[in-house]
Amino acid sequence: MLYIIGLGLGDEKDITVKGLEAIERCSKVYIEAYTSLLSFGISDDGLSTLENLYGKPITLADREFVEEKSDDMLSEAASSDVAFLVVGDPFGATTHTDLVVRAKKLGLDVKVVHNASVMNAVGVCGLQLYRYGETVSIPFFTETWKPDSFYQKIQKNRKLGLHTLCLLDIRVKEPTLESLCRGKKQYEPPRYMTIGTAIEQLLEVEQSRGEHAYGEDTTCVGLARLGSEDQKVVSGPMKQLLAVDFGPPLHCIVIVGNTHPLEEEMLEFYTLNK
Amino acid sequence: MLYIIGLGLGDEKDITVKGLEAIERCSKVYIEAYTSLLSFGISDDGLSTLENLYGKPITLADREFVEEKSDDMLSEAASSDVAFLVVGDPFGATTHTDLVVRAKKLGLDVKVVHNASVMNAVGVCGLQLYRYGETVSIPFFTETWKPDSFYQKIQKNRKLGLHTLCLLDIRVKEPTLESLCRGKKQYEPPRYMTIGTAIEQLLEVEQSRGEHAYGEDTTCVGLARLGSEDQKVVSGPMKQLLAVDFGPPLHCIVIVGNTHPLEEEMLEFYTLNK
Question: In which pathway does it act (chains A, B) (predicted)?
Fold first, then answer.
């Protein structure tokens, strides 16, 4: 049996009782490391916070692992119970759907333990979840590469009066250019896009496109460390949020569409300079 | 302090460790009863499954409670720790946002413990969450009242190639017409819309509108008891799903938009008569 277990968003105690009991049954426990594990007390030194709570050693499954060694994990799951832990909900990322497809094709039993993800926890800002349009991702721009397919999607959502959740780029365990050339494994330091960088990029694209999909006066909500004890939520026009220090990752933004009175009442609690 | 704690979707063990610890600190525990609590082992006889796990008595907060007595709960939360338990995630329903607004206006501390909700757990069918458009609700039709605002929303989502999550009507503790007239409290038996009824209503609206937003050959995914041990997921054209017995509530439907290869691979596992 392969258990794919969501850890939720905040810290090690956001796992469900069901997830914890599943881990207890497993002979091997892996944890995905494509996204930020900072709040789970995981660093290069080890996985101690989680391991202490779960009472088991945990193997870090980074990008390399998924590309080269996940078949081994699936073989183990054919003969014993294996847990694969995932930040948020198991179906927040395409990678995990791919893992489920491969496991099912091998005839393995797969059991999913759900948890909160950014896709529903973003509801904390008061904007109703059923009034969101398509979700967009904002990738880090470089001098020569500025992919802006999010622009048209935001435009369509706004024409329909819908809110847009913008997920911000995470670059973890990216091989350095040098290492790609030399075949030697070296990684760039991890990078997490801030709300400030995202807004700068959004406004850069608006300026070059000029179709008024949004602008510096468009109301947005910036959310940092969603679901953590120290989460920070601020609502205001884009230009105002540019000046806010949201602190450590992860960050995301909601571009606000048309609002109902209850949504406005809730946003007011998060507005600066009332 | 008012804790608003998500219970997740499946059963009493879907609560998080953080949620369970918060309940332990609370002097009073309420549970909302607007949605289905069936899978949590809750019936008219009591709340025994949950109460056993949590080790505390729980007060059922039905519609009447929220309309007439929730101010009392907020007063209690001013001087002690009170937990309000919610199926799914605290921000899945507008009602809970309203409760947060009222609590914050009274100057109360509010702490939210997130959990899975249908809005993210629906990812289990393999359709990627970031490719959903606006969510719609399908209300029970009567002879004289057939509100169909969902039709235009589905149409817009489909034009954009997006998936549509359809939430199906739940009618719990609805006063009978007789009781409204006589001022005596009597309730209709609870009703939960099935996937079959929803598809019949969807096709009825398509037939009267005739704008080809979708049709009986449109691929949908029916999901029953999402997140439970006995959840049932079936993918197929609307007319085929009409004949499927999905069993007890809750049910929901996804109307499938344009699909990527990985989404198709995943849907195949849920397809009848392959």
Answer: Protein modification; peptidyl-diphthamide biosynthesis
Q: Which two tokens stand for residue B134?
A: 């606006």
Distance CA B123, CA A223 (A): 23
Cα radius of gyration (chain A):
20
Residues B64 and B173: their CA atoms lie apart, in Å, by 9
Extract the tokens encoding A269. 């609690």
A168 is in an annotated binding site: yes
| Same domain for B264 and B137 | yes
User: Is the CB of residue A146 less than 8 Å from the CB of residue A242?
Assistant: no
Note the pLDDT tens digit of each residue in B25-35: 999 999 987 66
Q: Are residues B146 and B165 in the same domain?
A: yes
A129 annotated ligand binder:
no
The torsion angles phi and psi of A160, rounded to 5 degrees, stand at -90, 0
Strands (E), chain A: 2-6, 28-32, 59-61, 82-86, 110-113, 136-138, 164-168, 170-171, 191-192, 219-224, 232-237, 251-255
Q: Which domain holds residue B46?
A: 2-116
Q: Is residue B273 part of a domain?
A: no
Residue A141 in domain? yes
| Chain B residues touching A91 at Cβ < 8 A | 120-121, 123-124, 129
Domain match, B70 and B150 both: no
Within 139-168 of B, beta carbons closer than 8 Å to A belong to 156, 160, 162, 167
Q: CA end-to-end span of chain B, whole Å?
A: 54
What are the tens digits of pLDDT across the range B206-229? 999 999 999 999 999 999 999 998
Beta-carbon separation of A91 and B6 below 8 A: no
pLDDT at A55: 85
- A107 belongs to a structural domain: yes
ipTM field: 0.92
Tell me how far apart the alpha carbons of residues A15 and A40 are, in angstroms, rounded to a whole number: 11
Query: 């199926």: which residue's tokens?
Result: B87
A245 is in an annotated binding site: no
